[in-house]
Amino acid sequence: MYKKRAKETFSQSVFALIVSQVIVKLLGLLYRLYLTNRNNYGDEGNAISGASFQIYSLLLGITAIGIPNAISKLIAEKSAIGDHKGANKIFKISLLIFSLIGIIGSYFLFIYAHSLANDYLHIKEAELSIIALSPSIFLVSVISVLKGYFNGRESIKMTAKAQTMDQITKVVAVVATIELSVILLRMENTAIMAACSNLATTIGNVVELFVLIKAYIKDLPNIRMEIENSVNSEIIRVKDIIKNILNVSIPISLSALIATVSKNIDSFTIINGLKGKIGYEMAKKQYGILSGKVDTLINLPLSFCMAIATALLPSIAATNGKIKEKENRINHSFLLEMYISIPSILVLMFFSNQILGMLFPNAKDGGELLSISAISIFFITIEQIANNILHAIGKTKVPVVSIILGTITKAILNYILVPRTDFILGGTKGAAFATVICHVIAGMTSYIYLIKKTKLKILKRNFVKPIFASTILIIVAKLIYSVIKFKTSIKLVVSLGIGVLVYVAIVKSMESLAKISHKSPKY
Q: Does the CA dihedral 276-277-281-283 come out positive or negative?
């Protein structure tokens, strides 16, 4: 018997994505701990797999990264007016186009793996890792269309479930493939282990695609019923659908592509800039510290913020011009993101050495890099949510311009600072500082445009309240850490644990007072 599909609320979507991201990132941290602390892997292995992954991400920027947001926006707009037939047609055309693009991308990565490793990255050991990732270009292209479809239909829980299954599979596959390679080869080869870690990404993507296809097939009765009951349908030519898809997806993909280029700047400037000063092996290790450990910890809070931004885009598109509802969702999202990002910044800055020492006892270097890089979280968070809002309201050129300005600045600063090992902000610290400046420019350009050129009102309390609560968190955590006499790792867990409890209590108190005084909008 047909049962009408229940749509998720914005809060349910955000919650589902955040829970998924908590699981995904904790599992991701788990396998990163395994890799970094494993014999004959460490920072060198991170450098090989990390550099390969940046090449892969660069190609994804062309073929897949912007697809989910673009498709979800178009389908949410069609679904909001009841044109389910049009939404389904957009999905099918998108699936065909991006599947073909994904096949081309996978072929390119496979065929040119040798040249990319030797001539672009200057890390010859990365060739096998690039080959291991090549099928994922096609897989992620198809996955991205399916994610966009489910997100646009306000079924974000399904995409959250799929990416969780992907990560679970990846963690198991990382350990299994690496240990199996060691047993079969009877040796611990860093380049082969790095390739195995990237092969696990491909295996995870296969499982994620299977989960999404299974969900789509299960939902077909609902889809067919919605198409039969479709209203406000209009005959749209295939070329017009392609034009609409490209009009939305190209600016989003271009923004993502340029952001990936910014990360790739590190992959070829750090090793090239430092190998003449400190030697190739040490330069590779320095890049591994930044790309393996620091980026992993920085991306942890950012992934939660990205979950909110991802849910926001189709949610805004579905408001269908209701300004007040749109503002409420935007302000709610900003507040949630600041409640996550600001305490994360302060914890990573003030406890950088202790965190690295606890998580990576066999490779704990990088405290200064982590402290510098943590600052970028605030501006990347603003950049993420401001750009998603701008994409949702049709201001697609602004995010592209802002990230171009930031990336150009990043490239200039990297080339100036990285070779200057005698300077306080030279070497990898210079690269980390350049990343911060990149996102200051990109994030603030988009945010300033958002508040100056649109009629949307962004509340100041979105920033003031999280800063106040986060400051108390750090004061409490620092005091407890200096007083208690335990092993360093236990001191860290206890002091941060109590600090977080105090933080949550303060946040709850502030939000309760805001509701009582009727100053807080209803979300």
A: negative
Q: Which of 55, 49, 28, 57 is nearest to 191 (CA)?
A: 49
**Domain range list for the chain:** 10-458, 467-523
Distance CA 446, CA 123 (A): 35
Residue among 458, 451, 464, 456 nearest 506 (CA):
464
CB 335 within 8 A of CB 464: no
* Cβ atoms 309, 345 nearer than 8 A: no
Q: What pTM did the predictor assign?
A: 0.71
Token digits of residue 321: 């011009």
Report pLDDT for 30.
82
Give yes or no for a contact between 292 and 47, defined as CB atoms under 8 angstroms apart.
yes
Which segments of 186-294 does DSSP mark as H helices, in order?
Answer: 190-218, 220-228, 238-278, 280-288
Take residue 343 and report the two structure tokens written for it: 């305490």
pLDDT of res. 3: 47
Residue 151 token pair: 């997100």
Nearest to 188 by CA among 35, 27, 28, 365: 35
Question: For residue 441, how many other CB atoms are within 10 A of its CB?
Answer: 21
